[in-house]
Amino acid sequence: MDDTDDLLYEDFDDSDILELEGTDRGEAETESETEDTDLVYGVNVKTLPPGTPVYQLRISCSNETIFSVYNGPELKPGTVVFVPTRYGKDLARLSGRVCGRALSGISKITRIDRVATCADLEKERINREKEEEAFKLCKRKISERNMDMKLISVHFLIEEAKIIFFFTAESRVDFRELVKDLVSVFKSRIELRQIGIRDEARITGGLGVCGRSFCCHAISDKLKPVAIKMAKEQNLSLSSMKISGPCGRLRCCLAYEHGFYAEQRHTMPNENTKISVDGTLWKITEVNAVRGAITLRSEDGRLQTLSKDKFEKTDNQWVIRK
Questions:
Q1: Percent of the chain predicted with pLDDT > 90
Q2: Burial of 163 (0-12, 13-18, 19+ CB in 10 A)
Q3: Which end of the chain is more exposed for a tag (fewer CB within 10 A), N or C?
Q4: How far apart are CA 112 and CA 71, in angstroms?
């Protein structure tokens, strides 16, 4: 497909984006998406006065977190506010205030427009009902047209006549006819966003094998790169069934916990390291980074487990403190 057929593709988080606008007459028109730096992140972090409260907000439709400031009284956790997002002005819920060292890691900040009113919350409730119906309709249209795509969620913006459809697909999908169907029904601007499989898990959520909510959904919305090397350093089975999440990709917790394991292993000898103690040669058979424990086996088969504090590196060689 080319850009001349009322389509606009752009790179966005390794996904392909198609954005079209439908007029009340049901026509499809193109509209260029505003850059995040122009629309959303309008606050220069370095120019904020000292002590300015910085809040963490969560966008419900995509389960993303953003950081914002507010020109008004200090806000409490749970407050629902209007804020510019990359999808347009929308509601977000305040998780809390960002303090201490966490502030140094923030490079992009937006500004809260206003606190949501009771009327806004009622409209959001009504929109949730509309989204359920729009989801069913769009899914039916996808099935009727036999399109190779999976609809994930639908979101109605509060202050804009705009509906966002999130979907996954193995490759680019020509859904111009689908857009026409949706525009003819909703008479609104229709935006389809293709997301990755990991993004699907982040948005929809679920329970992992640990019995807790997905890390990408409950802990952080930032999908860090995950490598098989992380599983090796954590002494985990390399079976794909055991180290892959429900999304089919390596588990996010491998990346979240990697820093701890890397720091711990730096202060501990590796497996198979040999250490001589009073004339007896011992071999390290297991290193437990979580417990900080190291198991050794002697030449005559004896086993002993010691704390990592018992070991030190001298002249590039590990020894046991006496």
A1: 23
A2: buried
A3: C
A4: 8
